[in-house]
Amino acid sequence: MYPPAFDYAVPRSLDEALDLLAEVGDEGRVLAGGQSLIPMMKLRLAAPAHLVDINEISELSYIREVNGHLAIGALTRHADVVRSEIVGAGCSTMASAAPWVADPLVRNRGTVCGSVAHCDPEGDWNSVMLALGAEVVARSRTGERVIPISDFVVDFFTNALEPGEMVTELRVPRDDERSGGCYLKLERKIGDYATVGVAAHLRLDERGRIGRAGLALTSVAPVNLEVEEAERMMAGQEPSEELFAEAAEIAARTCQPQSDVRGPAEYKRAVVRAYTRRALHQALATARGER
Amino acid sequence: MTTTHQPTTPFDMGGIGHSVRRKEDDRFIQGAGRYLDDIQLPGMLHMAILRSPIAHGRILSIDASEAEAMDGVVAVVTGEMLAAHDLAWMPTLSGDTQAVLATDKVRYQGQEVAAVIATDPYIARDAVSAIFVDYEELPAITSPQQALEEGAVLIRDEKEGQTDNVAYTWEAGDREATDEAFAKADLVVTLDTHYPRSHPAPLETCGVVADVDPATGEATIYLTSQAPHAHRTLFAIVAGLPEEKIRIISPDIGGGFGNKVPIYPGYVVATAASLLIGKPVKWVESRSENLISTGFARDFHMHGELALTADGKILGLRASILSDQGAFYADAQPTRFRAGLFHICTGSYDFGAAHVAAKGAFTNKAPGGVAYRCSFRVTEASYLIERLVQNAAYELGMDPAEFRMKNFIRPEQFPYLSPTGFVYDSGDYHTALRKAMEMIDYEGWRRRQREPHPEGKLIGIGIASFTEVVGAGNSRTYDIAGLKMIDSAELRIHPTGKAILKLGVKSQGQGHETTFAQIVAEELGIPFSDVKVQEGDTDNTPYGLGTYASRSTPVAGAATAVVARQIREKARRLAAHLLEASPDDLEWEPGRFFVKGVPDKGVTIQEIAFAAYTDFPEDMEAGLEGVHYYDPPNMTYPFGSYIVVVEVDPEDGTWKVLDMVAVDDCGVRINPMIVEGQITGGLTEGFAKANMQWITFDENGNCIGSNFLDYLVPTAWETPRFRLGETVTPSPHHPIGAKGVGESATVGSPAAYVNAVIDALWSKGVRNIDMPVLPHRVWGALNGVEVAP
């Protein structure tokens, strides 16, 4: 498969990259892992005139713990997350999701920030980020913005970046001793997009009640869907089978799945219901330190 | 029946029965294989094809002026230009005609409309985007049922005498005898099921480098071909080129699975372009082009009925099939059989009467009907009977294993004449099933199945006891486009005792360079590593019909054994000359003749080979070589029993394989490791069919399944672990007792997986789920929800 012609630049520093992006504006795209962009170009579904390849800017590859959150750099690969002890100890939801992202080959190249910026509603990471309440750091030659994930995800394949801006970091709240989460995904085979994905995250208060609940769904709406109604409903409540069943009902009612080769909408709602219930139970067990 | 075949040669000699390492892998694992896309010729041009975006429409105009004006574009070829050379249409392997480049209508999404020849492949594709075609859209027919409706739009309006969308009708067996059997039945069990459209999807897509020398008119055509000789003859007929001026070279092939049997429009256009331009032209398909336009497989809508007695005997089988042929009837299959060898559908069972009625319909889909890892529709046939048999057992209240045991053809009945006319050569079905049951602990699983599951999951156990028919022909019955289905081997022993074996078949990964050398090692005692196997170059190999339908070992393997034996007889006379003895006084052991009773007095095959060129008797022709064309007396009938245990999650409809055993009997195994590799691959492809893989279309005829995101190929991650077993029932008519095995597991295993899922759900009232048994279909079946597709 042969993409159309394009200009290609390999900056050696972030500043150089931001200068290039400012120059090319709308016509430019950042190339990080390339696991979505390159196939789209080869299928001639995307035809950017300029690619700014950031793979030589090694300072963008990191996972750090900073002030109660995890900071994930723009070049951090999915596979880095799978292997990361910081993520393993500090973010059960990300640790649970990472092995379900694409397949091992894609995980070796693809980046977390690239996937977040792509805003594909079938992508796994944005559900995780919505459930966790993460923030996206965007930079341009003129400055830096910190954007809540719920504002960053604008629409179907549409993010909140301005021309000349790129995602440089993702900030994910760290689990404390009373929080935990998970990601459950139904896929037809490894590397497939989710038929349904459910990210759940719970933080308990001192008395064991739900302080904050995060719940977001993959592949069942035009965007990764935060189920705010269920989140609000669970907040302050005693966790129970009935509560989770009610949250699952809300999720199944709120989502907007399409019938396609992965199944009819009715089926996807049933899976949303089942997986939401399972995910909340698993998140609770993790928050209680039972698993 | 025995359990294994004991080798008669030392391991280093590598005769039959030794799992020696594959000779060809040295170059493959070093990345040094030479595939079609590796070929670069001086001045070579590149071709890209413009394809129809719609499923059905009349071409109103084609404007290529912008493309033609682009830098680097040498030519834009349209159907009209081909028509001027009488090349706009070409014959298919099933006697239909197929458009090379569309002139009147497009009849499926992805059909070839125009081609760009350019100096590099990027420019060629850029120029394809600059060709503008106006279509008048016509209604798309996306199922054979729709095609046969009253008033359906006529797809093949160009075809003289064609007034409907029927591609063919065909029947086999005895209708009256079958009706009589059904009249006597206590119980009739029926099944309606669709074997979905699938695609061989080899890792390497199809392609060609056509190099027509303008000075000599000689055409060297590098081609991803499973059948280079047959393709040369067809090229001569299609393109009107003299056959001696055509040389087909099939380089290393990255998987064929039937996909590389037909001749595709791209091959013809590239060759015509090279002829007209006078430069080599390369065309290599993209993955999407491969999936949407080249030979699909299956797509049979099947109805089956079994007539049964109350005590569990099968009396007869009635089967009717409606096949979705796409826009052109282009099945690759023997001429006489319009639905391939589907009439093997009586399977492993002994009963008196069967009748098969088949009808094919034209639809607005890609043509094909290739035998994807299958001996001409044997896969569909095996699937139908094994699903029916399993369901019949439940309806009778019998265990499916017990029901099979009761109805199997018994060992003493071979050779067995089937009610549709096949003569099964050999078999022992009871032993194979019994062995599989022991290996998997069938009774143990049946007990576990009855126990309540802590998470509410459902256990299912599925069996398939298939019989295949492979190794076409004989020449009396089997031909493709008139070419009789023989094959050949040419063997030359060099003075230093090394050898070259030339074959008309063509490996695509099956390990021919090793397996066929092992046959020579067995027959002549020349170490397999000293035997070079050459295939794929029509100027340098004897004629043959090619590699597909598990026919290489049954036919070319037999030819190899026979020619080696002929050479051994000449070697005996040479040995007699060297030993000053009578040929009748000599005895053979692997690699050596010696005087009977005097083991020290002997000569090796290497010494004999040297003498063939240096010291031969005056009345003997020099050299040590021969060629043999083998016409098999019958097909071979490999068989086996597969058992699968699955666990179904009723909440999301997913199912996973907990255990699987596969007991195969392919007669004598030449290289057991290669055979096991074939079986493992086939079980994986069978799992793909059962679990995830199909090509479907929306109501406008848009192909869903045009890339590996939609057309799913299992990886090591989701592929179950298989446990393999064997029995050995040699073919009585094959020189070394071997049967074909390349396809057994693709043929046999899909029914085993599906039977296992149905077994888990039978008590919930589920009788059928069409493949692929996707989670939403399981969920729909359990919850009584229609889930089309």
Tell me about this structure.
The complex is a heterodimer of chains A (291) and B (789). Chain A contains 12 helices and 14 strands. Chain A is globular, with a radius of gyration of 19 Å. The longest helix of chain A is centred in the last third of the chain and has 23 residues, at 265-287. With 291 residues, chain A is α+β, with helices and mostly antiparallel strands. Chain A has 3 domains: 7-53, Uridine Diphospho-n-acetylenolpyruvylglucosamine Reductase, domain 2, CATH 3.30.43; 58-173, Uridine Diphospho-n-acetylenolpyruvylglucosamine Reductase, domain 3 (2-Layer Sandwich), CATH 3.30.465; 179-286, Enolase-like, domain 1 (2-Layer Sandwich). Chain A starts with 6 loop residues before the first strand and ends with a helix. In chain A, 36% of the residues lie in helices and 25% in strands. Chain B has 789 residues and is an alpha+beta fold. Chain B folds into 3 domains: 25-33 and 487-630, Aldehyde oxidase/xanthine dehydrogenase, molybdopterin binding domain (Aldehyde Oxidoreductase, domain 4), CATH 3.30.365.10; 36-138 and 205-253 and 260-293, Alpha-Beta Complex (Aldehyde Oxidoreductase, domain 3), CATH 3.90.1170; 297-472 and 634-783, 2-Layer Sandwich (Aldehyde Oxidoreductase, domain 4). Chain B contains 19 helices and 35 strands. A 7-stranded mixed beta sheet of chain B has the order 3-7-1-14-11-12-13. A 5-stranded mixed beta sheet of chain B has the order 9-18-16-15-10, with helices on both faces. In chain B, helix 10 crosses helix 11 (400-407), helix 12 (429-440) packs across helix 13 and helix 14 (512-524) packs parallel to helix 15. The radius of gyration of chain B is 27 Å and the shape is globular. The A-B interface holds A 1-2, 4-5, 43-44, 103, 186, 188-193, 195, 261-264, 266-267, 270-271, 274-275 and B 121-122, 125-126, 129, 286-288, 651-654, 692, 696, 704, 707, 709-710, 712-715, 717-718, 774-776, 779-780, 783, 785, 787, 789.
